[in-house]
Amino acid sequence: MRFLQYSRLQQNRRFHWSFALLGLLSFGFHAHAQKPVYRCETASKVSYSDAPCVGAKEIDATPTQGMDKMTGTSRKGADVRRDEHNAVMADALKPLTGMSSDQYRVYKHRLKLSPRDKTECGRLDTNLPELKQRAATAPSSEKTLADVELYKARKQFNDLNC
């Protein structure tokens, strides 16, 4: 009889923990993934876009955090506060998920993708750094081909909403 009571108590604790974990994971569910910004030069004109182009350079467009001149307090936009909150939640869940805050952000963002698209995004995650390196170090005779390959991979990454 005692064993049955102990077993039920363990099941209740597991249920409570799984319910709490589910609540924490769904808290702040709207994932905000920063898309890369590309600097494109076409016919000596420079443009910036979230869509890649051949020969594009990826630039850092991370939102800045300003300071109020009068009070000296930090002024942060809603997107920065949301990202900070999500990073704190990911750090709190790290013992359970084993993911860093960046890995957790990507996981949440890709949660709504189909399994096929998730697999393709994972493949692109590993291929894009190699393609960037190849395009940066390619000799002039192979640079165009390397740029086109990088463009195609970036375009697919963008189209899949990875």
Describe this structure in words.
By secondary structure, the protein is mainly α. About 60% of the residues lie in helices and about 10% in strands. The strands form two sheets. It has a three-stranded antiparallel sheet, with no helix packed on it. A hairpin with a 6-residue loop joins strand 4 (about 65) and strand 5 (about 75). The longest helix has 25 residues, at about 1-25. The model is unreliable at about 10-30 (pLDDT under 50).
Overall helicity: 55-70%
Query: Beta-strand level of the residues, as a percent range?
Result: 5-15%
| Mass-distribution shape | globular
Q: What radius of gyration results from the CA coordinates?
A: 22 Å
Strand order of the largest sheet: 2-1-3
For the terminal residues, how far apart are their CA atoms?
A: 53 Å
Give descriptors for this structure.
single chain; 162 residues; mainly alpha; 3-stranded antiparallel β-sheet; two-stranded antiparallel ribbon; 5 strands; globular
